[in-house]
Structure to design on (206 residues):
């Protein structure tokens, strides 16, 4: 603003010089004022250019910061999309894995149950076979054993006491004339003695 005021004063001075034809001293004074005004204008121009450069640099820095922020935002979006894609893929793989595990577990369970059922069928068949064999053996053995026991009873005439103490041999020998009790201790007597004694009770007369 001071430079414009000086220019205005200079113009007025020149007008007064032209109109009044003042002295050379006043002309030198005006020329000096003109020189000062030009220096101020140059300084103002330099200051304005410096401020303009600073403003341009600031705008450049701000623009670069905006570009960097935009680039970082784009990178963040890309990374977020990659993470979402990985999560989606992991979720699909997890679902597929769970399905495979469930299917595998069901298959293994079904196979195990089938194997156990087959084992049970084999056990049942084996039990039926053994039961049949036992029935056949019982049908054949029991009558034979009963026949041998009855035959031995008729020959020896001995009625055994099956409720006696363990290790004791008790019974009654019903001979032709009298009944004779039998009381033997197998822990004190040998098997040969017991056998000979029992056979000695058998009547040799038929």
């Amino acid at each position: 603003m001071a430079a414009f005021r000086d220019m205005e004063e200079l113009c007025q001075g020149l007008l007064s010089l032209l109109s009044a034809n003042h002295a050379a001293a006043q002309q030198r004074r005006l020329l000096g004022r003109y020189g000062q005004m030009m220096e101020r204008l140059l300084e103002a121009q330099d200051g304005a250019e410096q401020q303009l450069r600073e403003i341009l640099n600031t705008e450049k820095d701000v623009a670069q910061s905006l570009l960097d922020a935009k680039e970082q935002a784009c990178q963040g979006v890309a990374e977020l999309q990659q993470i979402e894609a990985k999560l989606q893929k992991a979720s699909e793989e997890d679902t597929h894995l769970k399905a495979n595990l469930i299917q595998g577990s069901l298959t293994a369970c079904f196979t195990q149950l089938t194997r156990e059922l087959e084992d049970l069928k084999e056990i049942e068949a084996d039990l039926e076979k053994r039961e049949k064999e036992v029935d056949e053996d019982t049908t054949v053995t029991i009558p034979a054993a009963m026949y041998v026991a009855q035959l031995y009873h008729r020959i020896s005439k001995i009625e055994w006491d099956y409720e006696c103490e363990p290790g004791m041999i008790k019974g009654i020998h019903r001979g032709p004339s009298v009944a004779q009790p039998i009381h033997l201790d197998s822990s004190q007597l040998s098997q040969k003695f017991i056998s000979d004694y029992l056979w000695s009770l058998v009547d040799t007369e038929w």
